[in-house]
Design brief:
Radius of gyration: 14 Å
Helix content: 55-70%
Shape: globular
Number of strands: 0
Structural class: mainly alpha
Order of helices and strands: HHH
Strand content: under 5%
Number of helices: 3
Largest sheet: none
Amino acid sequence: DLFKPNDDLKNFFYKNEIEFSDPTNTFIENYNNNHQNLYLPAGDMHWNDQGHKLIADFLTPVAAEKITSAK
């Protein structure tokens, strides 16, 4: 099960009352819609510029909501 590590993390965070935002589905949807490579070449699993943009787009509303709700 490819999603087991994500599920384990979600369960851990939930049990410990830690907020968790999982970008996995965002990356999957992006690939399915655009077939865009988001990683550096030669098997390097670090994000390239497009991968960093996607995670920034994912996290911006999450961070904004946290900042707004903290006021």
